[in-house]
Amino acid sequence: MSAGRANFEKRLRQIGAERYHDKHPFHQLLHSGGCTPDQVRAWVINRFYYQARIPMKDAAFMSRVDDPALRRAWRSRIEDHDGTDEDEGGIARWLRLADAVGLDRQYVASARGVLPATRFAVDAYVRFVRDEPLLEAVAASLTELFAPRIHAARIEGLLAHYDFADDSSLSYFRNRLNEAPKDVAFGLSWVLDRADTDEKQDAAAAALEFKTDVLWAQLDALHGAYVVPARIPPGAWIPGTHLVSGTA
Length: 248
Fold this sequence. Notes:
Shape: globular
Number of strands: 0
Number of domains: 1
GO molecular function, one term: pyrroloquinoline-quinone synthase activity
Order of helices and strands: HHHHHHHHHHH
Distance between the termini: 61 Å
Family: Belongs to the PqqC family.
Helix content: 55-70%
Pathway: Cofactor biosynthesis; pyrroloquinoline quinone biosynthesis
Organism: Pseudosulfitobacter koreensis
Strand content: under 5%
Keywords: Oxidoreductase, PQQ biosynthesis
CATH superfamily: Heme oxygenase-like
């Protein structure tokens, strides 16, 4: 037997209240207008690696699923990021943000300048979803419960403080305000239905905590490399490089 469904959902939401990366100092700096142009660019470069790996993570998940209904429900997540004939998708929208902050989009797409810790954290998430039980793999995606709040705050903060911010450059975040609630409604219901013992609830909660660690680690990497005192590791993007012509 397990704790009640409502209590378990409350437990999952409490993980976000305590551990979600909206509380990280880098996001607070970004949303308040405190980042330099190069710190914003470093965030765009490193976050792209995460965005680009999300559909790969979801494809790995789907490859393990026997239930056609679950695959159909999950398929839209890949389309949301990769795009369709009718919709450019989240990856293309993120590259539009790269254009807006003055970065060479081919360099961003190449992922050559990504911080090692970013790469390790994101790759660990892809492996987790590929290898762990399906319940934990779905539970790890439930950070989307908390995403609309951070997207709304980001839109407001970027528009208020940065010249590059407009409807085009921020289209990724505006689209996620509609996409994330749809995804999480399905994922949350799926997890709540199947985590029917204390052991399964503990495993699902641990998976969600792992995902918050993945997101937090990415910002730790950015803060350590590009915020004073900056310590940029070998191979990572160097401020002032790989900019489009005329970018200051």
